[in-house]
Amino acid sequence: MAGRRLRSGTVVLGGMGMLAATLTSCGSDPDRRCVDPVTYEKLPSYECDDSDGSGRYYYGGNYRNGKAGGGSFDRSAVESGGFGHSGSSGG
Question: Three-class SS of residue 3?
Answer without folding.
Answer: helix
